[in-house]
Design a protein that fits this description.
alpha/beta, Rossmann fold, 49% helix
């Protein structure tokens, strides 16, 4: 229930801004995504919290943003569940110029991440004839991204285009998240959430910040390469927003979420891409 309450309260506040900005004739965005598009924050004195990418696209770049995003959501759920039930309805109702998508991060760093990591202790005790050079099963991960995840993205792109043929679709590929072990702490209605990445490394007994961050960089790079391929495949329809290297170490609030300054940078990067491709 906590997740639903967090979404509904912020969703209502964001909806009031959307209605106001839409009446003013600002360009309309419909957005679907995870916590990068729905990061929790307290609404005080009726003021909408400025805590995620969509907030800053609206309040700093002048877009009328209708959000269908919910923190913690997965690519699978977005594409095979809420896309048809909620997102397409919003696109048909509001006829946006742009559709923004933030999907795949929770699929990459959640429990599924363990499928692509070799248990370091097991590998030492039961050596293989051809042991992997890295505890990261890169070929298996690349196959997963370029089949399962790419198929989901293709379905999303085609379905959104069918709802509004002249729409432009934008998706970011995240930045190099940090396996710091730092959770999201005490937002009242959310409580303690995370950490995600470091526990996965610990379960596979993969120690050392250098190798952990190297694996994360490889995962993020492979994911972004998939989005680049889709931009080529759907030229003029789908656009990849490359956020790699944008957020400095001190600008991370926890393992997978930037601080306010990070979200401001990401919003600016997306707005710049939208301007370039208008």
């Amino acid at each position: 229930m906590a997740k639903g309450k967090a979404r509904s309260k912020k969703y209502r506040s964001a909806s009031s801004y959307f209605r106001k900005f839409r009446r003013e004739g600002r360009p309309v965005i419909v957005a679907e995504g995870d916590s990068w598009f729905d990061y929790p924050g307290k609404i005080t004195r009726g003021r909408h919290p400025e805590t995620d990418v969509l907030d800053f696209l609206a309040l700093k770049h002048g877009f009328a943003v209708h959000r269908e995003s919910i923190m913690g959501d997965t690519l699978e759920n977005m594409v095979y569940n809420t896309l048809e039930r909620q997102v397409i309805d919003a696109i048909e109702e509001y006829e946006p110029r742009y559709f923004l998508f933030s999907g795949g991060g929770n699929d990459l760093v959640g429990r599924r991440m363990l499928d692509f990591l070799v248990d370091a202790e097991f590998a030492r005790e039961f050596p293989l004839e051809s042991p992997p050079k890295s505890p990261f099963l890169e070929d298996a991960f690349r196959l997963f991204v370029n089949t399962v995840m790419k198929s989901a993205y293709r379905l999303m792109i085609r379905r959104v285009q069918s709802a509004k043929p002249d729409i432009k679709i934008y998706a970011h590929g995240y930045d190099y998240v940090l396996p710091s072990g730092k959770p999201v702490i005490d937002f009242g209605f959310v409580g303690f959430v995370g950490p995600w990445i470091l526990p996965n490394f610990k379960k596979r007994k993969i120690k050392g910040k250098e190798i952990q961050e190297e694996i994360i960089r490889s995962m993020i790079n492979i994911f972004n390469e998939m989005l680049e391929d889709l931009e080529t495949e759907y030229k003029g329809l789908f656009y990849h927003v490359d956020c790699r290297g944008l957020i400095k170490r001190k600008e991370w609030a926890n393992e997978i979420h930037p601080k306010k300054v990070g979200y401001i940078k990401i919003a600016a990067k997306i707005a710049e891409k939208m301007k370039q491709t208008a």
